[in-house]
Amino acid sequence: MPSYHLSRAAEDMKRELTALLRELKDPRLGGKLLTVVRVHLSGDGSTAKVYISAMEGLEAAREAVKGLKSAGGYVRGELTRRLHMRKAPELRFIADNSIEEGTAILRTIESLDIKDGDE
After folding, report:
1. Class of residue 26 by CB neighbours under 10 A (exposed 0-12, middle 13-18, buried 19+)
2. For the chain, percent of residues with pLDDT exceeding 70
3. What CATH number has the domain spanning 3-118?
4. What is the pTM of this model?
5. How many CB atoms lie within 10 A of CB 50?
6. Tens digits of per-residue pLDDT, 22-74?
7. How remote is the C-alpha of 78 from its chain's centroid?
8. Which residues, 6+ apart, have CB-to-CB distance to 118 below 8 Å?
9. Domain assignments of the chain as residue spans, ordered by start
10. Helical (H) or strand (E) element with 47
11. Would you call 13 exposed, middle or buried from its count of C-beta atoms within 10 A (0-12, 13-18, 19+)?
């Protein structure tokens, strides 16, 4: 499958997974600001690594991944239905701390701007 098909499919999956996160009723997911950072689809489309990040940090993302793994069958079925796929890839959820890192970088930049304004 050409790479643009894979990247397009991965973006579609990311969009639908983000919507699904808001609909799931698992207590491990509730109340957390979760984001699907990226979806990496294998070359044959049989597996997809889904990187999940939480605003609360890496530990919250790990807890959310546990909830997503237990709801994996439902998520995979919904993804198949919504994207009209013949066969949905096997989903592997991975905790990611990119939102936390981005927030730390933003705070550092803002503190530098404040110091520069004082001079």
Report:
1. middle
2. 92
3. 3.30.300.20
4. 0.82
5. 24
6. 888 888 877 778 889 999 999 888 999 999 998 888 898 899 999 999 989 99
7. 16
8. none
9. 3-118
10. strand 47-54
11. buried
